[in-house]
Amino acid sequence: MKWLAVPILLVFMALMIYAETGLAERLDxxxxxxVYVSPDYIARTVHDTKTPNIVTSVLADYRGYDTLGETTVIxxxxxxxxxxxxxxxxxD
Amino acid sequence: xxxxxxxxxxxxxxxxxxxLIQVFALYVITHGHYGPGGGxxxxxxxxxxxxxxxxxxxxxxxxxxxxxxLATWLAAxxxxxxxxxxxxxxxxxxxxxxxxxxxxxxxSGAALRSTGILIVELGIGLSVCGTMVTIFDxxxxxxx
Lengths: 92, 144
Hints:
The complex is a heterodimer of chains A (about 90) and B (about 140).
Chain A: H1 5-20, H2 32-35, H3 38-49, H4 54-62, H5 64-85
Chain B: H1 8-30, H2 39-57, H3 59-65, H4 68-91, H5 110-139
């Protein structure tokens, strides 16, 4: 049963190598990731948010919903530590 | 539990470091607009300024300076600031997290969105700081 993982991994590796051939070239300005909204963010950041650091304006403004989720993850991690380490009533 | 290290030098130097670390943490949080930094990084540095006395002064003394309950409250308050920064524009007729509609007097337009980013970064910083201190406190408790 343990050896079943090897062919699965090999198939997955072949799939990844096949998918890699379809990726855009590194630093290609016409790659899909570089032509959709990224130029818009770069061009409009200072005008929209008066924030020279594009990373911050994307992180907290354009993608603020994502950062809200990240903060929730960290907060949940802290609460989980409290819940796990509290010796309360046992269930059984 | 992590034991206190009995040394006058360690105590004095660590206490002298705390305000410097806190100022640097505030700098990192508020400088995120213009360079590397932001709420996550600054929050961790702020947490270090609480954890350092925990290590050098012993828990019984440092818990009175900054109680473990306060840390959890800080984390919750930080989250609340962030969620309110999203909900208030929603209630005022704009989209969720649209900082351009935050009711901050004196600023408007792009400057208001910059202020909104600052508010959110402060919320993230408080939340991250509180969470880090909470995790440290509960992992190093003496009595389970």
